[in-house]
Amino acid sequence: MIRKHTRRAAKAAFAISLGVAIVLGLFAGTARPAANAGPAIVIGTKNFPEEYILGELYKQALVAKGFSVMNKGSLGSTELIQTALTSGKINFYPEYTGVIVQVVFHHNFSGNSAAATTKLARKLEAGKGFTVLNATPFFDTDVVAVTNATAKKYGLKSISDLKKVGSFKFAAFPECQTRTTCLVGYKKQYGLTNVTFVPLASISAYTLLDQGKVLAADVFSTDPPLGKNSKYTVLADPKHVTGFQNVVPIVKTSVAQAAGSSFANTVNAVSAKLTQNAIVAMNKAVIVDKQSPATVARLFLQANHLV
Amino acid sequence: MGALIFDTANAHTFFEAFRFIGDHPGFLATKALEQLELSGAALGIGAAAALPVGIVLGHLHRGSTIAIGASILGRALPSILLIAVFLTWLGIGFVNNMAALAVLATGPMLTNAYDGVDGVDRDVTDAARGMGMSRLQILGRVELPLALPLLFTGIRVAAITVVATAPIAAIAGGGGLGDVIVNQASYRLEGVLGASYCVMALSAGVWVALLALQKAMTPRGLRSNRRPTAFSIHGVPPEGDFL
Amino acid sequence: MTAAGPVIPNFGQGSSCVTGDHLFCWDWVRQHWGDTLEPHLVQHVELTVIAVSIGFVLALALALVSHRVRGLDQPIAITAGLIYTIPSLVAFQILIAFSGLSTTTVEIPLVGYSLVILYPNITAGLRSAPPEVLEAARGMGLTQRQVLTRVELPLALPAIIGGLRIAVVSTVAIATIAALVGDRGLGYPIFLAMGLPTPFKTEIYSAGVLVVALALSLDLVLVTARRTLVRWVR
């Protein structure tokens, strides 16, 4: 093999050890918890603009109060971000109360009121070692939308009217297919058959609706395209399949405790200001006016003296 | 941080992925066929654009900058960017993804076609001209057969580039095995890994099949004619002008 | 309990270009260079430089080793080829389970791909020294190390830089997929813009132009470096 005393081998050894040193340095670098203000808060968000805004709102408010915070950005759907949370890759993310109860904990029914849903969500998460902080005033539920032309053509006013259409394509984020707050619930409660599910990956459901690739899609009630003069018709959900969906920050309990009461107070102060009007305005700023979520969050926090 | 400690649940996943394949053979086969369809269409369009241009330029011994530039640009264009751009022009679906992948396929094929034809020994072409062959005859009977190895390498490289990149097209409705790979939420990591084993097998299969096709199509007399240059030692196609 | 309602500031209305979904909106680019485009460009440069540097060090080490120990070349080349077939999408997902949502997860596949591109080029370069030249050098009494540093490596320079060019350009492109592992690199604005109800052309095009421009300028830097280095070495 390599003669121990050749300079060649020495050079190779040096190069390899340099490379390994750099690699180890990278590992170590990412392992070290940031700065010195309490435990490191690692925020993640789900993969749509409203969540990006929420992530930035909480992050900037906490940074202003001296906490060390990282926002990892868009991580994916509930199922994926839950894995990130339970495996410790993040320790904070904003989730919807009904989703916690029905999707994370697989209950069939989330509650008779927003408050009841929040309470149940808090209890369930506490059992797993996670703290659910105060809920926001605003809620954002899934809704089924069709283009105005489609609604007119088939006379669609409520989700059960979709039975009239025969077989049709329905687009939604992949997780909708297995959720009682989504497709499973729609099919069961409204007797829908002949639905072909089209999972969304990175493209918006509105794009698919516009291009006629699907007849109906599952979208969110706070989306700007559903605002004034909308091109889309939201179908009524009288059986309340989609549940109550206020936002609550989920935080690993040990981290929340280590961070102290000022942590919870800061987060709750932000949540308290997030009314329906506020979130819709912020969504519009990001989705329609193409402002960055970070800037929109900053402006809102400044206007409300939260930073 | 424990980053270097393997989580046993996850080391297990690599083997669970094989079970996923075993459990869903029909589904994965359909997806694989979808992916081949998309890749084939993209390769076809790319070849239709790249090969004539490369061959003609090589024959004229002109435009080496274009050939090299095509290669560099092909490598510099991220697949995601191409998909996003074509999405804004062509909407979602098969055509947009096919166009994006076709652009990726042109680079290797154009460069290699150019190199292949341009690099034919001048003595040989001079002799052919001396024998009274027309330009077209020289191209068809002398240059192209001699350029075949490089030409085919270019097609092979383009083919596996397209097959291996096709999964990302799933984010814009491209279908294929990518539908599983971008959807860890539904299929879990076992499914994602299983689908990617299939993608890797597909790439390898395409490579081998095209290699066999090349051997079958190369005239017997030219089979040992592969000029061993530094590039071909490791099968790295001649891109870049380092010699 | 009844707090005053929030103040909703003016977030700045997007220009009619932006809201009307026109082909390209310079005003958006000017307005958002600082908060969106530039930070992601810087991240992208960092990702690329780290990946190619480490990949180069490792590839050089491996090439030097296999240059002397002939039997090693085939196994290394085959392993390298196998690494290259792993789709980056999958590599990231697997690594998240081990190294989390960190830069490390992103860098490992990028380093791997750089290594795979650089190793054959460096090896080919080292082998390109004509046998007569090597014999002459040894005849002049040069040791093996001196032959390496004074003859083989200088002759290998064009191949090494050629490999670096390919590695750098490829890494810049592949690094766009790093955006799947969180907010880093120029791929992130592209993903976000693609997913809006109406995909936002300006953001896609401007991030795209930056990626391609970055790749081409780094390529140009290396081409210039090669000319200088080759002249200097000769």
Descriptive notes:
The complex is a heterotrimer of chains A (307), B (243) and C (234). Chain A has 307 residues and is an alpha/beta fold. Helix content of chain A is 44%, strand content 17%. Chain A contains twelve helices and ten strands. Chain B has nine helices and no strands. In chain B, helix 3 (64-76) packs antiparallel against helix 5 and helix 6 (122-130) packs antiparallel against helix 7 (135-165). In chain B, 50% of the residues are buried. Chain C has 234 residues and is mainly alpha-helical. Chain C has a single domain, classed as MetI-like (MetI-like fold). Chain C is built from nine helices and no strands. Chain C has helices spanning 16-19, 26-68, 73-85, 88-99, 103-126, 131-139, 144-174, 187-194, 201-233. Chains in contact: A-B, A-C, B-C. Chains A and C meet through helix 1, strand 2, helix 8, helix 11 and helix 12 of A and helix 2, helix 4, helix 5, helix 7 and helix 8 of C.
Assign the CATH architecture of chain C: Orthogonal Bundle
- Biggest interface, chains and residue tallies: A-C, 65 and 55 residues
Helical/strand content category of chain C = mainly alpha
Uncertain residue segments of chain A: 1-7, 31-36
Q: Could you describe the largest sheet of chain C, including whether it forms a barrel? A: none
Radius of gyration of chain C (Å): 24 Å
Name of the level-1 CATH class of chain C? Mainly Alpha
Net shape of chain A:
globular
Order of helices and strands of chain C: HHHHHHHHH
Residue runs with pLDDT of under 50 for 5 or more positions of chain C: none
Per DSSP, the total helix count of chain A is 12
Number of strands of chain C: 0
The CATH superfamily title of chain C = MetI-like
Secondary-structure blueprint of this entry?
The complex is a heterotrimer of chains A (307), B (243) and C (234).
Chain A (H helix, E strand, L loop, with lengths): L6 H25 L9 E6 L2 H16 L4 E8 L1 H9 L5 E5 H8 L9 H14 L2 E3 L9 E6 H7 L13 E5 L10 H8 L4 E5 L5 H6 L5 E5 L11 E4 L11 E6 H7 L1 H12 L3 H12 L5 H11 L4
Parallel strand pairs in A: 1-2, 6-7, 6-8
Antiparallel strand pairs in A: 3-10, 4-10, 5-8, 5-9
Helix pairs in contact in A: 2-10, 2-12, 4-5
Chain B lengths: L7 H16 L1 H36 L3 H13 L2 H12 L3 H25 L3 H9 L4 H31 L12 H4 L2 H34 L26
Helix pairs in contact in B: 1-9, 2-5, 2-7, 3-5, 4-5, 5-7, 6-7, 7-9
Chain C lengths: L15 H4 L6 H43 L4 H13 L2 H12 L3 H24 L4 H9 L4 H31 L12 H8 L6 H33 L1
Helix pairs in contact in C: 2-5, 2-7, 2-9, 3-5, 4-5, 5-7, 6-7, 7-9, 8-9
